UniProtKB/TrEMBL annotation:
It comes from the Bacteria. Residues 34-53 bind DNA. Gene3D superfamilies: Tetracycline Repressor, domain 2. GO terms for molecular function: DNA binding. InterPro entries: Homeodomain-like_sf, HTH_TetR, Tet_transcr_reg_TetR-rel_C_sf, YxaF_TetR_C. This is HTH tetR-type domain-containing protein. Residues 11-71 form the HTH tetR-type domain. It comes from Flavobacterium reichenbachii. Pfam families: TetR_C_13_2, TetR_N. Keywords: DNA-binding, Transcription, Transcription regulation.
């Protein structure tokens, strides 16, 4: 019985570290955030941090995984509130508009990680690519339900608009560009 509660406590501490690191990395960036900052914020020792994650890159991978899980659920639930396939696809832009307007204007956590670690940490890059592929697969399934031709190409075009809107909203700190990207995506979805 003691082992189960110890395991549970360790799991909670690990989760606390991941959430704190996620918030800190999102706010300050990956290279600008040192392990010492995470240790201070969570009250853990360097030894404990390395025991759980092995390295700073291991901690970053854990935060990316955390982001992938909760964001996948948020986006899927959000777009599935719509029944019409084309409107479902376009809802991803509405999701982004709401996020930006709620103050999440530091961009996409995964895109930020990919940018900071391009050609530096293949595990981080792969994890980021897997997130993007998952989002792309979700949109592709919805586009196929709309019976639009060239589904793969259309999804890539929509992804370009979506990712561009994320980057632009990070610069402008508002959702105007996201609305423009949504209008362009609507045009893409109307062409047979």
């Amino acid at each position: 019985m003691v082992k189960k509660s110890e395991t549970s406590a360790k799991s909670l501490k690990r989760e606390e570290m991941v959430k704190y690191a996620f918030d800190t990395f999102y706010k300050n960036g990956f290279h600008a955030t040192g392990v010492d900052t995470v240790m201070e914020g969570t009250g853990i020792s360097k030894r404990t941090l390395y025991k759980h994650f092995g390295s700073k890159e291991g901690l970053i991978l854990a935060t990316i995984e955390y982001y992938k899980i909760f964001m996948r659920e948020l986006i899927t639930n959000y777009i599935n509130q719509e029944k019409k396939p084309i409107e479902k696809v376009l809802r991803i832009f509405d999701f982004l508009i709401e996020r930006v307007e709620a103050g999440y204007s530091n961009g996409c956590f995964v895109m930020n990680a990919k940018t900071e670690y391009v050609n530096k940490a293949s595990d981080i890059e792969t994890s980021c690519d897997n997130y993007t592929a998952g989002l792309q697969n979700l949109l592709e399934t919805v586009i196929k339900d709309a019976n639009l031709p060239n589904a793969k190409e259309r999804v890539i075009q929509i992804m370009i608009l979506f990712e561009g809107a994320i980057i632009r909203s990070k610069v402008t700190k508002n959702a105007d560009t996201v609305r423009i990207a949504k209008d362009a995506a609507r045009i893409l979805c109307q062409h047979k």
